Amino acid sequence: MEPSLRDFGLTPTEEKLYLALLRLGSSAPTALVRETGSHKATVYAVLERLLQKGFVSFIVKGRTRHFQAADPGFLLELVERERKENTAREGSAQALVAQLRALASAPATMEQAYVLRGKRAVRNLLEEILKQGSYDCFSSQGKFHDVFGPYFYQFEQRKREMGLKSRILFDESLRGKPFLGHVHGNIRFIPKEYASPITTMIFGKKLAMIVWSENPTAFVLESPEVVSSYRRYFEYVWRRAR
Question: Are 103 and 143 contained in the same domain?
């Protein structure tokens, strides 16, 4: 019997497409149309919803988007965050992850670059960052606080509790803003003319660039060469910031 993802917010059609994508690996929508027998318009609409919910990401090859299923393990992280609301879901998630991984035709391999869209997907990324020992960030205009509201304070409190180290650069015009008093880590400021609406976070072997809006988008790159280059640039700016 195939596992069910409906307890985790997916409709039957979304579940069908996610499982197909997990079996196929990185695929263009046309391949998913053939695999599922669904109408082309339905496949595109469902992929957009799965992007919003954090179950898939995509890369662009040529002029075509190729989608890949999120690693099933993120279900465990979702349950962990919601433990206080529904602790009974953890056991279900563990069983589901085991079944989903068994469906994969080959071990999952992450692309070097991918896109995450929507608040849930970006929040999954931020949860991944919390697992790191440290991170550096060009926060510039402080949009994380504006878009996520209460979760921003939860994120900073968990950093404090975990002893996570961070260095964050903000736009000079934010100096003295009340929300900065809740930020855990070392803070410095850069001139406002160098500020950007995009937040860049450097953690582990990855670089994430987040475009903040009511429907935020993150571009994630895993490249030792690029990440090393950005770390050097961050160090250069950090030494000159005040």
Answer: no
Query: Is 61 among the domain residues?
Result: yes
Q: Which pLDDT tens digits describe the chain residue by residue (242 residues)?
A: 456 788 778 898 999 999 999 999 999 999 999 999 999 999 999 999 998 888 899 998 888 899 999 888 878 877 776 665 555 456 556 666 766 666 655 444 444 889 999 999 999 999 999 999 899 999 867 788 888 888 999 999 999 999 999 999 988 888 888 888 899 999 999 887 777 778 999 999 999 999 988 889 999 999 888 899 899 999 999 998 88
**CATH number of domain containing 85:** 1.10.10.10
Domain limits at 161?
114-240
Residue 56 lies in a domain: yes
The Cα 209–Cα 87 span in angstroms is 33
Q: Evaluate whether residue 166 is within a structural domain.
A: yes
